[in-house]
Amino acid sequence: MGHTEQHKGRWYVKQGDIIRGPFPNQLISSYLILGRLELDTEISQDKEHWAPISEYKALVPDVVLNAHTTEGAKALMLARLREDERSSHAGEFEDTELERRDHEDQVVKLHRQLRDDVIQRYRARPRASLLKLVLIVGVSLLVLIAIIIFRPAEQYEKIDCSSAPQQGVNWTHCNKQGENLSGLDLRGSRFENTRMSNVDLSRTRLDGSNFSYADLSQSLLQQASLVDARMVGVIMRQANLQNANLTNADLSYAELKGANLTDALLTGARLDHAIWLNGETCQVGSLGACLLPSK
Questions:
Q1: 155 phi and psi, to 5 degrees?
Q2: For the purposes of burial, counting CB atoms within 10 Å of the CB of 280, is it exposed (0-12), middle (13-18) or buried (19 or more)?
Q3: CA-CA distances (angstroms) from residue 252 to 123, 186, 236?
Q4: pLDDT tens by residue, 194-235
Q5: CB-based burial of residue 147 (10 Å sphere; 0-12 exposed, 13-18 middle, 19+ buried)?
C-alpha cells in the first residue's frame, strides 16, 4: 500500500551501497523530474526503514507518473526545458541575480513553477468533452511554443541516431552506450538526454556541445575538450575526466560522484547544485570550484 500522506521531514537516498542526504521533499521531486532518481529508488527518514519513492505519492510529480503516455512524455520534456532555460538565463545574468536573490532556495522556486504547471494540465480533469478538447489543444500549444522558443524546430527534425559521428551531429535522446568516439571532432553537437554510459570520448573535441541531462556514467573523457559545453544535470558517476578541459562549462546540477577530475581544467565552470566527488552538493556561487557547505 502506498504512503499517500505528506511528509515534512528530510529524506536519505540509497543507491546501491551509497546513502546520501538528508534532502527536503522538494529536492526529491526535482531529482525525479531531472532523472537523477527513479521511482524504485529507496528513501528513508531514519536510515532503518526503506521504501521506494513510488510508495510516497506526495513526493512524485504528476509529470513523472504520466511519463509513460505520449502527452506525459511531452509534459516531462517541457518541464526539463523550463529548468534548462532558467539555468541559462541565470548564467547570463549571474551578477545581477546574486545581488537581488532572496532567501528562497532556487530548488523551491523550480518546484513551485512545475507544480503550478502540473496542476493546470492534469488535476483539472474536466468532464465535458469540449473542455477535454481544449485541454489537449492547450498542452499541444505549450509544447509547440516551448520547442519554438527554447529549441528551433528544425533542430528536432535533424535528429538522426544512425548518423555518423561528426561535428554538429544531433543525437538527442539516442542510445550510444559503449561506443568508441575517441579522438573525433564533435564540436557543437547535441546529446541532450542521450544514454552515453561507458562511452570512450578520450581526446575528443566537444567544445560548445550540449549534454544536458545525458548519462555519461563510467565514460572515458581523458583529455577531452569541453570548453563552453552545456552539461546541466548530466550524470557522470565514476567518469574519467583526467586532464579534461571544462573551461566555462555549465555543470549545474551535474552528478560527479566518484568521478576522476585529476588535473582537469575547471576555470569558469559553473557548479551550482552539482553533486561533488564525495557526494556532497556544491553551493550556489560555485564557479571554477565546488563550494561545499561548512561543517
A1: -65, -40
A2: middle
A3: 31, 22, 12
A4: 999 999 999 999 999 999 999 999 999 999 999 999 999 999
A5: middle
Q: What b/e readout covers 174-192, taking b as 16+ CB neighbours within 10 angstroms?
A: bebeeeebbebebbbbbbb
Cell of 177: 552506450
Domains of the chain by range and CATH?
A: 11-60 (3.30.1490), 64-150 (no CATH), 159-295 (2.160.20)
What is the rounded distance in angstroms from the CA atom of residue 29 to the CA atom of residue 31? 6
Report residue 131 as a C-alpha cell.
473542455
Residue listed under C-alpha cell 493546470? 120
Cell triple for residue 247? 573551461
Q: Tell me the three state secondary structure of residue 272.
A: coil
How many Cβ atoms from other residues are within 10 Å of residue 167's Cβ?
A: 14
Mean pLDDT across 24-53: 86
- Give the span between the Cα atoms of 238 and 261, in whole angstroms: 10
One-letter identity of residue 90: A
Q: Is the dihedral of CA 263, 267, 270, 272 positive or negative?
A: positive
Q: What are the CB-based long-range contacts (under 8 Å, 24+) for 65-70? A: 66/122
- Asked if residue 11 lies in contact with residue 58, where contact means CB atoms within 8 angstroms, the answer is no
Per-residue pLDDT band at 104 (split at 50, 70, 90) = very low
| Cα-trace Rg, the chain | 19
